[in-house]
Amino acid sequence: MTDKLYEFSTLFEYKYENVNPKGNYVQRFQSKNRKITSNRPDYELPNNSIQTSKYTLINFIPKQLYEQFSKLANIYFVIIGALQMIPEVSISSGVPTIYLPLSFIILISGAKDFYEDYKRRKSDNEENRQPILTYDGYKFVTIPSSSLYVGQIIKVNQDEVIPADILILRSSEQKGICYVETKSLDGETNLKQKNVHIDLLQTYISDDCFGQEDKRIILKYQAPTPYLYQFIGETTTSQQKVSAMNFNNFILRGCNLRNVKYVFGLVTYTGKDTKIIMNSTIARSKRSKLEQQMQKFILIIFLTQLILCIIASIVYAISFYNKRNLLSYLDIESFDNEYNIAYNFFVRFGNWILIFTNFVPISLLVTLEMVKFIQGKFMTLDDRLNQPKVQSSNLNEELGQVEHIFSDKTGTLTCNIMEFKQIIIGNQNYGDVIENQEDYLSNDEILSYPQVTNVDFRDKKLIEAIQDQNHFMHKQVKDCLIMLSICHTVIADQKDNKLIYNATSPDELALLNFARFVGFEFLGSDENGIKRVRFNNEILEFQLLEVFEFTSQRKRQSILVQIRNSKEIILYSKGADSILLSETKLSQKELQSEDYHNLENKLQEYGKVGLRTLVLCKRIIDIQTYQEWNKRYQEAAQSLENREERMQTLQDELEKNYEILGATAIEDKLQQNVADTISAIKQAGIKVWVLTGDKIETAINIGYSCQLLTNELVQHVIDEKMESLVVEKLNETIGLISKQPHNQHALIISGDALLHSLKPHIRKNMIQIGESCNVVLCCRVSPKQKQDVVTLIRNQKKNVCTLAIGDGANDVNMITAAHVGVGIRGVEGQQASRAADYSVQEFQELRRLLFYHGRECYRRNSTLVCYTFYKNILVVLPQFWYGILSMYSAQSLYDTFIYQLFNILYAALPIMIYGVFDEEHDADILTENTQDNYYEQGPQGKLFNLKIFLFWVFQGLWQTSIICFFPTFCISSNFIDDNGYMQHLWAQGTMIFGLVIVVCNLKVLIFSNVYTPALLGSISFSMISYLISWIILDNISQAEAYVVLESLFATPNFHFGNILVIVTIVAIDSAINLKLRKMMIASKKKNQPIYQQPEKNDQVIKVINRANTGFAFNYLDVDELENQEKIELYNLENQVVPENFNNNNIY
Hints:
membrane, 39 helices, ATP binding, ATPase-coupled intramembrane lipid transporter activity, translocase, magnesium
């Protein structure tokens, strides 16, 4: 007895070593496998608090200042402010006036960051303060979630959120079953079943036993990982019984507990170490092409500024030196630095840098960011779109420049709402009937059958075979339908006395509802794992032994059951024909039989009409074989090393020597207006690539249905598996395309061939073909391959804008890899929409998003950026022209205070109003895009390029010359007040500055297409605010330009000069804009492409006929999410090929 007590005490008396003493967070807390004891918290590990916010009240100011001054533009203006404080250089009496607008801009950016971070912090606080029931050694007490530590035992009640990653110890259900909803993790609303391990179920036999010494357990488990669907661990009880734990015994933070009263769990991961937090990665930062070009133009402006400053400084230094003997009235001594050319150069260079400060537009980034933000809000308020979400408004104009669209098929082009259509059993095909046939179930007859969803089946022949026990197909049909009714992971639930199925995929629901429709009703599974099916008022019971889950590598799902009456053990499998047909136990004679060929032919026919197929198989296993296999399988399941690989090997060992039961066909219908949308996208000149996991025949058929493929396209199919054959086929395709330059082409390539085509030494050929094709269909591709295709185009064609659109978790990589990602909020969950820059409800909404919102955002934002450069040239350059008269002495024309308000108050609002409200054409006309190709201006970069930028610069040059010289030469000679004195320098500068404000505001009117009250009001506000500013300054005796405005308004020549300059500039500018518009219209008509009838080619309408049909099974691709780098080709070597099969691909 003493020895047992000693062993019992030493078992749990060990020191926690779950933390490394040194290193960063990952090295300290996430690099070591863990060992914990229940009810013994490890306080060295992080607690359960989370922080998604960036700032605290203490670090907000220093962090914000660091972020703001990590931007080169802000550093530039800080340097400018420092120069303004140097007396010899300053043009503002040593006052750093630039800091006023800089502070305003930093304040606006900081306020925006503070608001966004405040929302995050508020959410964090709500999460961290959630009350949690935890065991303190005596009873369950309530603590905040942030105080939870690894090793504690918690209680979670029904409908509550799981606060940390936990190992389930006990459930309110007698057999330890519980159900969770993982909506917050993967978007799935279907319930998932979790189970208490049988050994833990026997350990924790009551709700009040957790404080007993002999109920403690030791849990050894893996270090924190981001893999959502993986957990490996083992428990040791006080009796030293070791048990292996897996993901089925594990619940993640963020799940909701459903359908059970409560569960008890052992906390394993907390805070940053929980899987949901580890998967909350920051998305890759994206910048639009316009912003990238804008940075180049800013650099050009800055270099121009330096050149002008150098020229002005050199001219002044040389002129002053040459005329030094004529400047005695300046009282400059010969030994002063003023007589030093180098000194004069550098001082004047500093002066001119300060005068030209606004050459680099200080307000551009903030203005553009604010306009984009408001544009994004208007997108979300568009009642023609179904509540779109804008998560990256900085990419608005990128929507108007898309040249390549990469699209998923299932759930994106199709509805992802499956309807069961047909089934093959033995050599009989059921479901291929049409209305008015004798075997067609009428609408009235359908009412006598169970009312289910996702089924469109009208064939009486199958019903007769089920009901007539003497029918020659009865046994085969019954066997096949029993298989459909139990080979799944669907959870049955009773709600309001109705049986509800919670399926993990729409395919599963369609198959199970079909079985229910024809009389095989799945009733659910109990806590002992017994599956029950009702047929003809008889309850069939099956003991569940094992479930082999579907993965993209396995391409099948299997279930191992034992019939309770006969004790017979059967393995049922459903999945890809390319996998299951190769694992049948048919003899060579049976492989060549009519039944087998009938099955293959039907599978091909299903594929060609766009139906998704599954092959159904079974294998009867004798008890001795099962027992020997099960012993090894349980050992593999208990192992901590290579558990997954060992279990997979043993599953493969059992999944062979199948007997074919039949095959199913399910239809996934196209979404509304998909065909019109794709046709419009192609007409706009955008290339469409569809990346799908479906087989080639299915993808081709869907392609025709949605007008992706047409009879005018020459199809090039590449489906080879060996690298040498792929290279040969690519070269052959290039040759065929070059011989038919006037035809339009489509490339259809399989995942096998694509894997080779993406290799570095082959991808050049793939790019060349892709550039020549209007449409590309990539079939049988994995999520990683989708990403690789998008990345290939991005890297090889730097100036091309790509857009990826998808609806499932397997589309996330593709969406994040593209320049613009669009997610569809569909049946497969919300992961795609969360990871995307924009999300919509249906594919058809992409048309309005691109053709209206994208096109208009590109047009407005292009004009906004160019206009901002223009107005800054307009305000700065008159001072350079004035230098001709002042020997470039760097004399400023403007009042310093008024000058700094130019980009904040006098010329900021109208262009923002333009950027939000202006419309060139009606929204519906742009969305239709049929009267003209309005969209092409974006992909071709017609509105924002070097030529356009230089044109705006040119406009600034000639307009500033008029603004400067008209008042100087035409008016100044008679610029006389009532006392006969000529007005001084500030009067001339004030008049010039006023003209700049009027001209730049009227410029917005000239290029605007609509004159909204907001636009007219903003222009009026800008001019009135300038006038008010001068009235205030005019009455401040300390101001530089005291009483200038009063004397100016009393001078008639001032008003005449203003009218003369404004009329001249507006007239010339309007004439230039009118001429340019006419030239653009004429050029467009001249360059309008002439439609050429494609060369007649019979191959255009042919589709390759292949033995391999593949499969379509819409499951969340768990293993692809967890191991994106692993690409395992599906097996095609063992495909059975009919003798008369012709392997020549069609071109």
